[in-house]
Amino acid sequence: MTCANLGHVKFTRRQAITIFSLIPPSLLHATRVSASDTASDQISFETLPCPDAHCRPVEFHDYRVGTGTPVEQGSTIVFKWTGRLSDRYGWPIQNEEADEIRITLGRDRLIKGFEMAIMGMREGGKRRMLIPAELGYLDERMGPLPASYGDRRRLYATVLNQRRFKRAGDLVIDVQLLKVRNGR
After folding, report:
1. Which tens digits make up the pLDDT trace of 124-156?
2. Which residues in 2-125 belong to E strands, given as ranges?
3. Is 21 domain-assigned?
4. Does residue 175 contact residue 133 with C-beta atoms inside 8 Å?
5. Alpha-carbon distance 183 to 167, whole Å?
């Protein structure tokens, strides 16, 4: 079967994920568009350097760039968020009507990828974060956490389950930053 014949072949989601996992990351990054391209259906992600040599980078995209105060180390922030595993497996966390969450960077225990991706974000902005598993949830004390007990249990059962973690531990987190207060 040639590639030309694949036009009418249907794949299950698992088969499509397997196929896309075989594509080298260098080819995936080469197809991304720059911020100067204005096509409405294409999104560019910025890449943050990995803190050590054994992890993949954190990526983020601003859907709306805020105009307020930027987040820095020691800031107290108030935000709404949603999250899921990158293959849509497991736990829905929060929803649009969810309570606002208040945390202080550097004081509260947060997943490393979230801390990296939130830095520099401005009050009023909306951002999607792509966080690799090795910079995600490592134990039950790391935040941000879902408000409801049931959602927290689903989160732990998914990301702290070693069989699922190896296959689908990467996170997609969407954040709407409502307030920033920098500690000085």
Report:
1. 999 999 988 888 888 888 888 877 788 788 777
2. 46-48, 58-64, 76-85, 101-104
3. no
4. no
5. 39
Q: What is the pLDDT of residues 63-110, one digit of tens each?
A: 899 898 999 999 999 998 888 777 665 555 555 556 688 999 988 889
Dig out the tokens for 9 from the structure.
């072949």
Classify residue 167: in a domain, yes or no. Answer: yes
Domain count across the chain: 1
Show the DSSP H helices in the chain as ranges.
13-21, 25-30, 112-118, 149-159, 162-168
For residues 183 and 141, the answer to whether their CB atoms sit within 8 Å is: no
**Residue whose pair of structure tokens reads 């966080």 in the numeric block:** 131
Residues of the domain holding 108: 33-181
CATH of the domain at 114: 3.10.50.40
Q: Tokens standing for 140?
A: 């039950």
